[in-house]
Amino acid sequence: MVVRQRGERTQIAVLEDGVLVEHYVDKSSHQSFVGNVYLGKVQNVLPSMEAAFVDIGKGRNAVLYAGEVNFDASGLEGESKRIESALKSGQSVLVQVTKDPVGHKGARLTSQVSLPGRYLVYVPGASMMGISRKLPDKERTRLKQILKQVMPEGAGVIVRTAAEGAAEEELAHDVARLSAQWESIERKAKTASAPELLYSEPDLTIRVVRDIFNEDFSKLVVAGDEGWDLVDEYVRYVAPHLADRLVRWDDEDEDAFARYRIDEQLAKALERKVWLPSGGSLVIDNTEAMTVVDVNTGKFTGKGGNLEETVTKNNLEAAEEMVRQLRLRDIGGIIVIDFIDMVLESNRDLVLRRLLECLARDRTKHQVAEVTSLGLVQMTRKRVGSGLLEAFSEPCECCNGRGRIVSLELTDHAQEGQRGRGGAKADSRQPKDGRQARGGRHERNGKVDQGDALSDLAGSDLAGSGVAGSGVAGSDIAGSATAGQATAGQATAGSATAAGTDARVSDAPTSDVAGSSAWGSAASPDSDAETGGSARQGGRRRRRAASREQGPPDQSTLGDSAPGLSAPVQPALGDSAPGQPSLSAPVQPALGNSALGRSALDQSATVAPDGPDHVATAPPAAAEADAGSAGETAAEG
Questions:
Q1: Residue 142 has what pLDDT?
Q2: Do residues 317 and 325 make contact, with C-beta atoms less than 8 angstroms apart?
Q3: Packing angle of the helix pair 450-459, 535-550 (nearest 10 deg)
Q4: Does position 381 have pLDDT exceeding 70, yes or no?
Q5: Terminal Cα distance for the chain, rounded
Q6: H-run or E-run covering 115
Q7: Helix (H) or strand (E) holding 197
Q8: What CA–CA distance (Å, rounded) separates 335 from 80?
């Protein structure tokens, strides 16, 4: 045990084999109330909550539950034990603090006062006698016989583990001292006016030495003159046989905590993730209802064997480290541990036994429940203090301890290095119709990404727009500037179009066509309004010319969707103008099979008033005649 005093702060560390397992901290400005005895004043009683709020002079009212009320002292023997019968508003009541205020909760009280000593706990007004179960049966029998002789009538006692091997004189001395303390409290209670402090627990150093320091410790190191005087005097008074284990730290050049690497281990205990010796890890999260612990293999991949053996070894290490973290962080309340799933029942029992063995060294009251159907180990541990993290931290002012800043705007979760084609980060908040930024380097070089053109042709605006009735589907690409044969006022780029210039449609409806930008510049405003940009017309014309070489036109109705195509259409090879590359990838047409090689039929199609999805077609006779002329034009090409 190492004790260090710095100014108003006192820290006590307990190490087992050089490893920090427990830590206690106290400040003179914020001392613990646990163990103090007050004469409180009842503020109000809530029968529906079976609780009463008591003013003990600390600003915030403390709570006294019905289960902690001493009904025998209230003179209600034989009556119904209801809290409204024992307590009334404005009444004075003798109470003791059992738990410090935590968060928005007030301190917990009990009216069953108990005074702790070195070897036993004195319980006035009770008749029971309890002995620690950690002691062997022979020692328990010896202590029971001694206590029958030294205990006064009308008082109970609980024998602590430290009483093992204690002589009868030491036990009698402890009983006499605690009995005198209780008589002093009773005298003060008769003359005091509520609320008032009647008995205060000693300094943190004295409490820890009294409750913990025993023969199991090899030495007790004390740094600081004031702390040394206090500890040395107390130990020589209550346990003179342990006085030779006291060590005074006189090295001014080196700190005691630094010498035993306590500060380093404290810093790791304040982190969320705890690494295991083999490479696995624990992730500890504290919630409002419980503390949740997740066990991970992390970097541990095992050394031979199979997966079950690797997982079991990792869980055994996690069980040992978990108990250490519970003691060091002073975690209380409901605790749920999610071990890695194990197939064999024997391995699950082995991990649970290891957890119980390690918990045997924990002096705080705890209880391990059965393992749930999901493989979760649930347990409870008495919460006394606020915990290690709360002692060395405070909630964030920005997020109030939540760890996240909430905003009504959508946040960009794009990973670093995930960028668009133009070199800029992709903006997840950009609307679909504003995709001009995706062109990037290809647009700056006068080229458009073919993948973007294919995706837009297959499932974007063209499939559901009024392309079928725009009157541009009947244009031919066999000779020179022939687009005017299909629709008046619609022109293409002359020989560049006739030669099958490899122009790829960009994402933007009004973007320029690759190379000479012929289709985008020569198209009329009327055709642009109808088709969503004349650049898209050229792509359909080339595909229709290619389909005319492959066979007769399809007589299916308009409005078929592009996904219904059974095979992609290859554009005619050799049609590209000099210096222009031809399309090498298959192109999916925006419309269905009906768009291939149909000029007059598309020319006579009109968009129905209901929307672009409802298309009215031309009569069958006109379709046959126009299909024949389209075939002749393709043969000339």
A1: 92
A2: no
A3: 80
A4: yes
A5: 99
A6: strand 115-116
A7: strand 196-199
A8: 35
